[in-house]
Batch of 2 targets.
Target 1
Amino acid sequence: MSEQALSRREFFQLAGSGIVVLVCAGSLPAFAAEPPHYPEDINAYLLIGADGRVTVYSGKIEMGQGVMTSLAQMAAEELGVDVRSIDMVLGDTDRCPWDMGTFGSMTTRFFGPALRAAAAEARVALIEIAAARLGVPAGSLSARNGVVSVSGAPARQVSYAELAHGQQLVRRVGAAAVLKAAADFQVMGRPATRLDAQPKVTGEAKYAADVRLAGQLYARILRPPAHRCQLRSLDTSAAAAMAGVTVVRHDDLVAVLHADRERCDAALAALRAQWQPPPEAAPDQDGIFEHLMQASGTALKESTHRGDVLGARSHAARVFESTYRKGYVAHAPLEPHAALAEVAAGRATVWASTQTPFPTRERIAQVLGLAPQAVRVITPFLGGGFGGKSADRQAVEAARLAQLCGRPVQVAWDRSEEFFYDRFDPAAVVTLVSGLDADGHVALWDFTSYGSGERGAAHLYDIPNLRIRSGGAMSYEPSTAPQRLHPFEVGPWRAPGANMNVFAIESQMDIMAAACASDPLEFRLRHLTDVRMRRVLQAAAEAFGWKAAAAPSRRGVGIACSTDAGSCVAACAEVAVDEAQGTLRVVRVVCAEDLGIVVNPEGARMQIEGGVTMGLGYALSEELRFRGGDILDRNFDSYHLPRFSAVPHVEAIVVRNDQLAPQGGGEPPITIVGAVLANAVFDATGSRQLRLPMTPERVLAGLAAAKLHGS
Amino acid sequence: MAAAVAFRLNGRPVSLDAGHGRSLLWALRGELGLTGTKYGCGIGACAACTVLVDGRALRSCLTTIGDVAGREVVTIEGLARGGKLHPLQQAFADHGALQCGYCTPGMILGAHALLAATPHPSRAAIAAAMEQHLCRCGAHQRILAAIESVAAHADRVHE
């Protein structure tokens, strides 16, 4: 056992007495990147305490996606207890097993099985102890509602609390534990009220900026006016002269600190800094797309190639060439990044708004010169993440300042800092050449994505000659961020890259359907053998009341589908376009998803509704304005999130599939929003929108162009 | 220095140094220790920091301590009575009208002010009244449904 591992004794010191189950599930994808110095591949802990309560320890975090509740449901199901008897400890690096981070819709898919295995094993252990206690064979016992009883003689029973009392038992299991079948579910598959609802409606829920320590200081940090500017000169005298203000200057870090937040703000405003602009010009908003294609060069990564793409092009009856574009989009969680750090006696404790507590611990340890085990990252509730809290800048800043000042320090970004360091969803270009054969079948598909990677570029359509390539491969590691490609940092944004790629794929399918005068649904089904995808398309169409017609039918209806995170998702939408103003109103959206076995149907519907609603932003109104490294949109007065007036009725349909293990739910629905709305706009107007967001200006330009071509 | 300013906060008298334009938001979150009121934008554009002042919804980030002299301020912590959730709080929980929960206190207080002024608003009127409240998770239609359910029993709002 290496020094990093919790010993059994240490674990019980943390957890008290009871029954502990450790799951060693091995090489689950979510754990694959575990640094080699970490010990034992323990993926989940679960403790049954002497009070009968069950505590689940998971390195995952709750950012609104609902895993606090769905993970508790999984444990409750396998263990045979009420979901309300479960306490969740999430994202605490001292108490929870190592975890890579919460992203990629992977919690339910990959952590879920480990947790279920732990709970199933705990149930086996409880039955074994009960068998000895009651003097009956284990096979004659059954466990439910926190009680083990003798089958046929329910009066002979013993509670989990009694069984756990005085025990110091540790069990280990692999991932191969026998899990309940969907048909036997009592807790999973049924809607559960969020466990975090009560603290969130009363204001008791703590986020990172809500944690308070005695003697803490607030810090504000000097920021450059634009990315890649260098500090030329700095005069801190006015700030330093203010009562109670501490000025810290250490390497690249300049900060002012005060026990009162507003005085801290005033001190920041009193800093006099001059900045050197970057030596080379960065692309601006107008030049970014050309830049992305040029900077990607000819070194394209080919991920799929089947058939004869070049030959198919010369044989195709009709060829369609399109170029799709999308700008930078901010994560804009309502909670800006925040952290509170205390560094004392060679140990650091950091409360951080982060999706990656364990990697953040590593980074803080490295920067502070401490061993990782001397750093504890605690993750309170996150006020939204969407991939944007996968880095650790604010946590490292707070930790550095706490070390330098010898007092606890809170770093809580203001909205301008949040936009500046957002690590945006990258701008992207997709070029697509597709072709139809003489029978109206898609015979050619040549897809190239620039700028945002290839997630979502693969699809399920049966096309014989197909090539998928990408330029400027994405890497989200800060050290290798593609600075060459983008003028500021970019990063994972809810289904990274897929929103753009699906927009291109599903628009192109619509273009060809229209060219064949085919109904868009029928055209898709003609190219799909995948049973799950056909079923979600049909489910969405049926609930929507889809009536077959070729576009543009002037009804303003559209359809789109995609596969992401193991799920299949399809949507139908209706829009009304004001052809004088170029504005469009989304009237309604029906979205159907097959995400395998559903843990919490209510939670799944919330994720569908939320994904569709958030997607309205990148589809219609959200596009970051910038000039080189200068971020022009710094607040919600000029960067427009979807608001109540823009939100349509969203009908969420969970397509039941108990034959498949639970799949990802947080990301897939958002991937189709751009496409389904662009297709609906085409159906309404006959004008094809090739660029997101579809602002009124672009819609008007599209209408004018369509008129010019006499359509 | 500005003089101390007295007002009522969640039913109790408080007195604070008004400072030079000291903001209600940071006084609540700092000296008064009520962190249920959230910072979101600092310019009154997201409504996460909404509190009730004499029953009206105000952005606490744009409200000074001086502005609330002699007034009644209610934050999300002051809404439940005797351990019982306010009907709006209960409705938000029941309807799953939240995800990350960060905008929730402001949403609930904004809805509270709406129903105090207009006990039976239409769905469109609710949406219009909540227009300045931002939610990034996309809980909008559940928020509307939660408010609507309470509006249907508007006599319960001030029980």
Target 2
Amino acid sequence: METVMAHPFAKYLREAMMPHIWCSGCGNGIILNCFVQAVDELQMDLNKLVVVSGIGCIGRAAGYVNTNSFHTTHGRPIAFATGIKLANPELEVVIISGDGDLFAIGGNHFIHAARRNIGIKVICANNFNYGMTGGQQGPTTPVEALTTTTPYGNIEHPFNLVHLAAASGATYVARWTTLHVRRLTQSIKKLLQKEGFGFIEVVSPCPEIFGRYNKMRTGLEMMEWFRKVSAIENFSDPAKAEITPERIVVGEFVDIAKISYEKLIHEKIAEINEKKMQW
Amino acid sequence: MAQTIIDTANHIAGYAAKAARVKVIAAYPITPQTTIVEKIAEFVENGEMDSEYIRVESEHSAMVACIGAAAAGVRTFTATSAHGLALMHEALHWASGSRLPIVMAVVNRAMGAPWSIWPDFSDSLSQRDTGWIQFYCADNQEVFDTIIQAYKLCEDERVYLPAMICLEGFILSHTYMPVKIPDQNEIDDFLPPYKAGWILDVNRPFSHSNLVSPEWYMEFRYMIQEAMENAKRLIQQIDKEYGKRFGFEYGGLVEKYKCEDADLILLTMGTMGSEAKIAVNNLRKEGLKVGSARIRVYRPFPVEEMRRLAEQAKMFATIDRHISFGMEGFLATEVKASLAGEKEPPLVAGFIAGLGGRDVTSETIVKIAKKSLKWMKIGKVEKETEWVDLRD
Ligand SMILES: Cc1ncc(C[n+]2csc(CCOP(=O)(O)OP(=O)(O)O)c2C)c(N)n1
Ligand code: SF4
Ligand SMILES: [Mg+2]
């Protein structure tokens, strides 16, 4: 019998960066795994793939994938990615980043990228807090959840990310949890093939910090919560898909066709150049 | 009642904000600042602090929220590090330009790229010209004392400027030391409630920070410069008064150690000042006349102190945990500028050390001193800026 020593996906990861920094039971590894699986199934040209991330635990993903990658400043991956995509529309630009990075400090970039419909793809690991800095409250922290900056319960209302993405103009919007590995993988495949701005929210366990403060100390307990309360409702109203302790609606919410910003801009340039020739 | 607690400088900064009866705190987490705001969040939520804690979505918003709160007439506090401070840059000018006495702890961390979470002064020194007073601390007690002193100073009508209290990440921020926290009544007596110089008030509406024509803009800038000059005097007075009341005094703008008869004076900032004292003691055992002057206040810069020290010293060695690319360390530049025009000024040798958290121990400083003494003997600095322990 032949013994295979390397993991079949080893070529997608930078071995020199291993071991990774993620805690045991963390969902980030599952997200990375699903992403790599999708890239493999699509047989994507790794030279044309760019993974961009901001800062946070999940942000390390950019350093782990063996593609072109860019680990940017906190909150700015979408701005960096916008530049990459406009400079070279041939590149497939994917952002893998956190809820804090994309929706707190970088929230402004998200809504404008979606509004413009620039062809970059965003995968957000929503673990309900700023994991990397030790578990503070952020824009997706559920009401009453305990964090290091809300030791007696959060009073702020969180974003409903799929609603925000849909309302801002994204052409593809989906939400899954790390429990839904096969559906998430298929969804990422779809995302990568879409034109324009696409978004997937992955509800992800952070047992080490968020879970610890909220009576779910292990990855398993957090996954158990996802299993109990998540319901697949494809193409339901994203406005009604708020995450609560009792209910996590998952599925695809938006899948529409719309011409991308990079196409429009290059068409415009061609049009102007043509007019110039006629002058 | 006064009490002594053993805690990290970050938690101590939280205790100081509590002792100062800060009313509004707005902050965004960043390593290694985070545990300051976590401590404060805990105090606010458990009722020990009668304050509002705003969990803003970025540092830019944190500073702007503090500006709003201070403009509404209350005492404010925030804390940040490195990239967070850089992101605040625009708002820093607004705080000083609006003459609002905001106090902020800056937990020093090196700037990226490449990423680093370890300390140097490149974050706060990059904000040198924003009109903020800058203090640099050498231990946890000084962090506590300086925050209290800073409110007293900044809220003085002759100053009305914001201040950064800088402390090096990890070396202080996460290190436990005993700290004496004075009795709250005595702190209240030293630091009465904030009386704002101007206040946004519905009954007396007026507009602030509007467009100013070239006829007046310079005058507003001049007033900030005057306030900085006033601060120089007041920092010394306040430090003395604080020392009398609470037992801790830091020499005002510069903490001098065995400088009286020194041929060589080591000029440092922050925790390098503590290491420099050990180095001085060891060098003195060898009969070498070396002293240490730790620049505690970098803005306003202690020009006069530098000149006084220059009267008898033959040689200065500046140790910068920072580099102004294309020039030298800021401390070197500013010390030289302070001495320009003096009769027979001491030689000044500049050393760059400890960037991105590399340790600057007393042994490192002894090496620096010995090299400087060699140059002093030959009457010539052979290398204007020396990078200490640089790898090939
Ligand atoms: C300007 C700036 N502010 C703050 C930080 C500190 N910081 C690093 S990661 C992070 C939050 C990350 O949260 P999230 O994006 O949700 O990722 P997670 O760690 O939860 O995966 C913060 C506040 C920074 N690096 N830069
Ligand atoms: S802190 Fe949370 S998000 Fe970060 S690696 Fe650990 S489990 Fe994952
Ligand atoms: Mg997060």
